[in-house]
Amino acid sequence: MDPAVRRYLADLLGVARDLLGSELVGGYAAGSVALHAYQPGRSDVDVALVCRDALPRPTRQELVTRLRHEALPCPARGLELVVYTRSVAGSGTCEPGFEVELNTGAAMPTRVTLDPAERPAADGRFWYALDRSILHQRGHPLTGPPAAAVFADPSPDDLRTLMVAALRWWLARPAPPGDAPAPGADDAVLNACRALVRLRDGDWLSKTAAGHRVITLGRDPGLVRRCVDARTGGPPPSAAAARAFQQRVLDEITAA
């Protein structure tokens, strides 16, 4: 683990323990840190905290206040923090179900949501169950029981439904016309690769590792290779090329 991230996570857990006390069940790194794909300057730090019971709103607000970048500077692009109760984490539900959502960082727009009903539907409600699925399989425990004992996977049918919703969300995003490189197109393609690999092989991989897996399958290797290279500074593909690949993956998943 990146040393700066390790120190930051220790400080974050210190705040959580101080505020939540015995209510804190565990803390888990997700995302690129858990998937061994963290890139300084590009990656976020994704953390899930699990508490025993629902938190009073003042406690949720205090947690946000003490973990905002202004109070605890994040060494990465930003922190994406989600807090769940133990019952939600272990339910396998498709619903967001969180107690707190906080996005904060020097290079990240701030988002604070203290109730899932406040989350705009247009921003996607599928992220959380997909993240809990990743945590179930690959979550890195910072404190508390193993992630697989705390987080439950959605059912196979629910997982497929969530991935279809995610792909449709990506396809619905505005995209520039023409053949010029489109910022973000590489993320869209590699997220589609992750969905394909998870449903085909059962593995949650980082975006880059999923891209390499799809290349070995011979699935549009030139395009996927370009997206992998874009993670280290290469030009991304055009939006049209990315959307065509995403649509093919969506068609395959829905047909299956």
Describe the structure.
The protein has 256 residues and is an alpha+beta fold. The protein is 48% helix and 14% strand. Strands 5-4-3-2-1-6 form a six-stranded mixed β-sheet, sandwiched between helices. α1 runs antiparallel to α3 (57-67) and α7 runs antiparallel to α11 (239-255). The longest helix has 18 residues, at 3-20. The radius of gyration is 18 Å and the shape is globular. The N and C termini lie far apart (38 Å). The mean pLDDT is 95.
Strand order of the largest sheet: 5-4-3-2-1-6
Strand percentage, roughly?
A: 5-15%
Strand count: 6
Question: Over the alpha carbons, how many angstroms does the gyration radius reach?
Answer: 18 Å
Q: State the secondary-structure class.
A: alpha+beta
User: Number of helix segments?
Assistant: 11
Uncertain residue ranges: none
Give the N-to-C terminal Cα separation. Answer: 38 Å
Order of helices and strands: HEHEHEHEEHEHHHHHH
Helix content: 40-55%
Q: Main β-sheet: number of strands, strand sense, barrel status?
A: 6 strands, mixed
Brief summary:
With 256 residues, the chain is of the alpha+beta class. The protein has helices at residues 3-20, 31-34, 57-67, 86-89, 127-138, 147-150, 156-172, 185-201, 207-216, 221-230, 239-255; strands at residues 24-30, 45-51, 79-85, 100-105, 108-113, 140-143.
SSE map:
Elements: H1 3-20, E1 24-30, H2 31-34, E2 45-51, H3 57-67, E3 79-85, H4 86-89, E4 100-105, E5 108-113, H5 127-138, E6 140-143, H6 147-150, H7 156-172, H8 185-201, H9 207-216, H10 221-230, H11 239-255
Parallel strand pairs: 2-3
Antiparallel strand pairs: 1-2, 1-6, 3-4, 4-5
